[in-house]
Sequence to fold (280 residues):
Amino acid sequence: MQAERFRGADLARLAERARRTMGDDVMILHTRTVSDGGLPIFEVLAAPSSEVDRMRTLLEPVPLPTTLRRGDGRPYVIALVGPTGAGKTTTAAKLAVRRGMFGSARLGLLTIDTYRVGGMEQLATYAELADVPFEVVYDVREVNAAMKRLAVCDVVIVDTPGRSPASAELTERWRSLLDALAPDEVHLVMPATLRADLAVEVGRSYRAAGGHCGATHLLLSKIDEVPQELGVADLALSLEMPTRWLTDGQNVPADLQTGVPRLMRTIGLGVGIEPNWVTA
Fold:
């Protein structure tokens, strides 16, 4: 997204400079006071409102339903998919144990990642500490029984294997398991550190294919590992998927944020880019 900073001693003049530079539809995204050599000065971050509207249109998700349970009484199922190392298991734990994330709804955890050493144990530990029901499913035939045991929950978070989508046999196996769970939402967990061209290719591979359900949302992870968070919003826009949440750290459950508002914050260039500029 095209965003620019304007600095000066008078806010009204800064707004006028932004309008002359970017057009009559300019939108002021952020205003703050910074210090230049000990003297306070204003800084304004602006962007064309058409680009801001485009960002919101592409990335703003449909709100979660007021009643999360399905019509047949089954919990609302949210699955996390994505490449190895994307942070799916940690994100699943954040979603399941963070109080108030889904209002007063009761959360459950389920994993079909039975391949990675330590993955199940990690989720089981978080589930026990937070008193969250937890199930492990190895086979399609076990899905119904596991979901019946989770019937006390309103929302079930599903963790999946972090294997390459190019591994056909394994992909077919876990995708068949995911189909049996019939998730209401499938969030593609994507590291913000991934190159944009690779991210777009990974995104394509996790979309619906071969009769399997595919990714419906994007969940960018590790945005705290991107220097000054530059390019994070553009990466999200390149994938053109609604973004309900993103993560900006490893702390469970703290480092989980609402998607679009947090992405809007990444548009502004951090003061760390120019060390001589500090918040006044």
Observations:
- Residues 64-267 form a domain with the Rossmann fold fold (CATH 3.40.50.300).
- The chain is about 35% helix and 25% strand.
